[in-house]
Amino acid sequence: MAILEVLHYPDPRLRNRARPVEHVDERVRQLVDDMLETMYAAPGIGLAAVQVNVPLRVITIDCSESRNEPVCLINPTIEAEEGELEAEEGCLSVPGVYESVTRSRWIRVRALDRDGEPIELEAEDLLAVCVQHEMDHLEGILFVDYLSRLKQARIRRRTKKLQRQT
Ligand code: NI
Questions:
Q1: What is the pLDDT, as a whole number, of residue 166?
Q2: 10 C-alpha to center of ligand 1: Å?
Q3: Ligand 1 centroid vs 116 CA: distance in angstroms?
Q4: Alpha-carbon distance 145 to 148, whole Å?
Q5: With 97 labelled, which of 124, 152, 154, 165 sits at a CA distance of 20 to 30 A?
Q6: Residue 16 Cα to ligand 1 middle (Å)
Q7: Mind listing the pLDDT tens digit of every residue in the chain (166 residues)?
Q8: The Cα angle at residue 78 between residues 146 and 121, in degrees rounded to 5
Q9: What is the side-by-side strand order in the sheet with 46-48?
Q10: What is the chain's alpha carbon radius of gyration, rounded to the nearest angstrom?
Q11: Residue 141, exposed/middle/buried by CB under 10 A (0-12, 13-18, 19+)?
Q12: Distance CA 40, CA 89 (A)
């Protein structure tokens, strides 16, 4: 396994739209394992392949407190959604920024798992928010896109300053 480099906002590669995975083969499983290692090391609760500059429809998530409930979704699609929830979000690609975003409170998702088997996941609250956030990455959308232009400009200035410091 390997820790992958996470792209930081406003890197234009975060705007790439991800392609569907055609075959869940050894290469894809390796990507999933590396993404999980990268996500746990960060530490973060979710990661999309686009964030490690691989434009494939693959996301990894672990919202558990014990950090031992990895979820891998390949080619995820939202089949149903209900309710609304406003929650504070952060993103490994936008370090140090936490802002409120409104999402569906409950979703049902179809995807393939790490073995390429079809799965259906019902998620609510934090897990639902996390899945929607990561699925946005597959379309090149970041959570900061939902904020006001003023806030976005402030975040761009702050992240540039951070990047100069490191
Ligand atoms: Ni993110």
A1: 64
A2: 12
A3: 24
A4: 8
A5: 124
A6: 14
A7: 799 999 999 999 999 999 999 999 999 999 999 999 999 999 999 999 999 999 999 999 999 999 999 999 999 999 999 999 999 999 999 999 999 999 999 999 999 999 999 999 999 999 999 999 999 999 999 999 999 999 999 998 888 887 777 6
A8: 120
A9: 46-48, 58-61, 71-82, 106-112, 118-124
A10: 15
A11: middle
A12: 17
* Ligand 1 center to 134 CA (angstroms): 6
Give the integer Cα–Cα distance in Å for 27 and 13. Answer: 21
Residue 22 · residue 70 · CB < 8 Å: no
| Residue the block writes with tokens 């609304």 | 84
In 3D space, the residue among 7, 133, 139, 1 whose CA is nearest the CA of residue 61 turns out to be 133
Distance (Å) from CA 118 to ligand 1 centroid: 24
The residues that are catalytic are 134
Q: Taking the complete model, does pTM exceed 0.90, yes or no? A: yes
